[in-house]
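Supplementary notes for students who missed Thursday's class. We covered one full example, reproduced here. Read the sequence, then the structure, then the short commentary at the end.
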Amino acid sequence: IFELTWVERLEDALVRLSRESYDALLLDLNLPDSSGPETFRRALNAAPDMPLVVLTGAHDEALGITAIREGIERFLVKSEADGRQIARAIRFAIESKRTEEKIRHQNAVLGGINRILSEALASDSEEELGRVCLNVALETTQSKFGFIGETNREGLFDCITVSDTGWESCRIAGGGRQQLPAFAIHGIYGRVLIDGKAFFTNDPRNHPDGVGLPEGHPPLENFLGAPLRHEGKTIGMIATANRAGGYRAQDVEALESLALGVVQVLLRKRAERAVREGEERLRHGAVPAGAEAR
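Structure (token representation):
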């Protein structure tokens, strides 16, 4: 059973789509203010992710093929379609769009992981590597800003990197990219580190773990965090924030997958650095502290 909202003009439909949420759009190609292919093209442009079923009064096979090629899920001739067929077409359009979105999302995650692994080779520092990983996470989750950090030996949280967009919005201590102090592990981000599990909230102000924001911090509309885990322990986290429309379960899965790649490249970068430092000590005849000279 569908709950339908009827409007007579395409312009009215586009206005509603910009303000309200719908599962699908059933579009007649013969409207008072629009007709023919331009009608579904305007609808696709205004709501590219909306499942779309087109109704036409003419049995125009060429128009139907064009519509399908340009992104329409179903094309029906009004004189040949009854209520049951229309309902079936709407269900098909919704499921088709969901499957398409799932595949696109999975491809974006896989592409992000490959990008992290490949660009890690060209990163000269841990911070630069962190920025690469964070930018991939922001693009994949369509977020505005984020950070990557780890817990230190004192049980505090050290930031490895903060996104450029985060610094641009930040007015803490005058703003600008700078070295942040270690933070106590609490609040919403602390929940990720304490539980060792990914989670999101689209209402951070009213979240039970919320402790407010420091003066100068950019507004927090929503939040998504995933732990960085190694050998069964949580060693840090990656977080993103302020996704338009809020976060979804699929964004949690995406960030968890990216977190695996982040841990891998960070540990590899540190291992490479340790090898270089060891070689440098040997070249200068130095002996590591605690080691016995022979």
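Commentary. The first strand starts at residue 25 and ends at 28. Helices lie at 10-19, 37-46, 61-69, 83-119, 126-141, 164-169, 187-195, 249-283. If anything here is unclear, bring it to office hours.
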